[in-house]
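Quarterly update, task 2.4: S-adenosyl-L-homocysteine-bound model.
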Amino acid sequence: MTGSLVVVGTGPGNPEQMTPEAAAAIAAAEDFFGYFPYLDRLSLRHDQRRHASDNREELARAREALAMAAAGGKVCVVSGGDPGVFAMAAAVCEAIEAGPAEWRSIDLSIVPGVTAMLAVAARAGAPLGHDFCAISLSTNLKPWNVIEKRIVAAAKAGFVMAFYNPISKARPHQLGEAFDLLRHHLPPSVPVIFGRAAGRPDEMIRTVTLTDAAPEMADMATCIIVGTSDTRVIERGGKEPLVYSPRSYRGGSA
Ligand code: SAH
């Protein structure tokens, strides 16, 4: 008997930013796999079982979830934000590709969610209003020199950048190196948005210039959006400024 596997994105943190489709998928599942803080955010019923794990164990978690679904379980793998953005959906696909043939016939669905950069961007204005890219600064799965190359290429091409996984205890210096690199390729006035815990009670959104951007302004719950020289800041006396990237190219970068 083959069961089902649903990979769900719960959004950035507050229940209002979880889609009704995600809430329905969670209500219908019986076994839940995920990084424990993500599982903690769900209000599961007594008949729903938690299988929490640490955040570095994605592939093992995906395999466990697939094995349970193959045995007939109604399984849900949970990610914060969107499950396809630096999260579990790709881990599940990798496990299926390398796994036993029977995993390919599991009833699989992937339910999208509001990813961190969208939640942060909405708080700041419209910094992703023109072409943009997302880069994870984590060196768990790729070397730092590749990250540096992508940052420089994106800056030269005039993309707004959203940095995920910007800093951790294991690599406290790299975010500062990333800002130094950007200062060689972008004007000092480029706005940099630090969006921490968007959508949660401890949310903090702060915009500074590239000159003033410092690694201490970020932690692992922060998504950083780096504008281009086209990105505008509208001061609003007393209120947070509005930051936006105009829809049309103004020739400021690339
Ligand atoms: N799948 C998630 C991203 C997982 S990677 C998503 O789509 O949002 C984890 C990184 O996401 C964190 O280091 C941080 O950079 C970012 N992040 C997740 N939730 C966030 C939030 N509520 N506010 C700001 N950044 C967040």
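Highlight for this quarter: Residues 12-13, 79-82, 85-87, 115-116, 119-120, 164-166, 195-200, 220-223 surround S-adenosyl-L-homocysteine (CB under 6 Å).
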